[in-house]
Amino acid sequence: MASLSIKLDDETYDRLQDLAVRHGVLMEEEVLQILKRAVSPPERLGDLFLNVFGLAGGVELELLPLESHEPVDLGTHPVDQVFGRLHLESPVDTLLDEMRGPRSGFSGRKK
Fold first, then answer.
1. Which tens digits make up the pLDDT trace of 18-67?
2. At what angle do helices 27-39 and 10-23 cross, to 10 degrees?
3. Residue 16 CB: number of other CB atoms within 10 A?
4. What DSSP character marks residue 55?
5. What share of the chain is helix, strand, coil (3-state, %, to 5)?
């Protein structure tokens, strides 16, 4: 195990000593625990949930059956109302590629 020697001001030393006494450990152990927490990777949200609620946490919810319905008519887009509906002969990506050249690192649509 590696060792580390640092100089502390008296106030910091006293606070660390007080913490160690409250936790019932040696001051070196208290400092080691503080340093471990400071450099540990952050806890993931899922891990935090499991620590707080455990594996048996949660409630059972009854899922209501979905009813089919007619699509909602959102009306005409305001731009279409002013300028009319845009009808293109080619997909927008193809037109953009023709105007600016093909995109780097792009090999086309997924198949």
1. 999 999 999 999 999 999 988 988 778 888 888 787 777 667 888 888 88
2. 100
3. 16
4. T
5. 45, 0, 55
> Which of 23, 43, 47 is closest to 34 using CA atoms?
23
Where do the domains of the chain lie? 10-53
Alpha carbon of residue 37 to chain centroid: 21
Q: Which amino acid is at 80?
A: D
Q: Give this prediction's pTM.
A: 0.40
Nearest 5°: CA angle at 60, between 58 and 66?
A: 130
Polymer length in residues for the chain: 111
- In contact, 6 and 20? CB cutoff 8 Å: no
Distance CA 101, CA 4 (A): 58
Beta-carbon contacts of residue 97 (< 8 Å; ≥ 6 apart): 103
